[in-house]
Amino acid sequence: MKAAKLPGSDGTAASCRTSARTYAAYAGVVRHSTAPSPPAGSGAEVCSTPWSVTSRMSSELPWKGRESAAFGAGAWGRAGRNADRSVWTGGERPGMHGASSAYERQPMRIAVTIFLTDETITPVRLARELEQRGFAGLYLPEHTHIPVERTTPYPAGGELPREYGRTLDPFVALGQAAAVTDRLGLGTGITLAAQHDPIDLAKQIATLDHLSAGRFTLGLGFGWNVEEAADHGVEWRTRRALVRDRMGLMRALWADEPTAYDGEFASVRASTAYPKPVQKPRGPVSGPRTLVGGAAGPKLFADICAYADGWLPIGGRGLTEALPALRAAWADAGRDPAALQVVPYAVRPSAGKLAHFAELGVEEVVAQLPPEGETEVLRALDALQPFVDGQGS
Q1: 284: buried, middle or exposed (CB in 10 Å: 19+, 13-18, 0-12)?
Q2: pTM for the full model?
Q3: Cα(264)–Cα(252) distance, rounded to whole angstroms?
Q4: Three-state DSSP class for 111?
């Protein structure tokens, strides 16, 4: 029997710097707004951009390919119309060090995110359409409920869009998507881990990853809605440390041998807990591919280096300046530079944007879909199709 302990941190939320066209809450879709930047510590550092917003994020992701030990056969590297499109054939991978000409010729992998609700296209219909069209994956946000009386402002300003209070449970919806697809990547963007019982969450994650043959990506975030978190018993100022503790406990349950965990917020006895996630441990990380959302800063980068495979940032502005600090923190933590992954999230693609991403070594972006019915969503997929086919302009 082994004991595991994952150090915690007790940082407050970094602020999410917004302008009239950048937005908040990974756990949500946002509208156009002229809202000022949320104040530091408001909790809006985990952000997302809606279909209607022009994203300006750039990042880089050293995709490991179809047979990656990190993701396993059948994972995201196989997603898309051409299962071989993620296989690196141009010599040494550029990783986080820039793109070679061979790398730049690789088709950009386009995944999507959407607020699925009881009023939108269904998970089954969307997942089948995405796989048929060759999209790389589907990420879903999370809100358990939205308290009607709250003092936390909507990070984008104005009224909170109705889809926030109508979101489907992402794990149930992704389970449906997994059942009707073979190659489509499945992810959360993001899971509010602090609001979950970690033993239950570990089981949900491992089950979805197992049933999807390793296609799951766990996107993690810290949230923005103080009242929602409070109803889950979350103390706002310690939520970042709580997420880190949750990850430590889940990692113990995912270990090959029964492993006890005694953390700051929770503990678990050495236990038999199956199924296990498909992906094999890599460095300090075990479980599915794990990306952490949030605004650039030392606290976020410390979390990424401690328990994740990389970063799930919003938009593109400022990423070029932020990457050196993330790389330095990653190297200082003893992590493999080539293993660092960064996936720009809730992007509205353009040829210029994708070309810039490719120069940075990006192989995957997550585009925003509107939280609408089948007709509107299929129209949005039609608009994205040229980028999926590598012919976008």
Answers
A1: middle
A2: 0.77
A3: 14
A4: strand
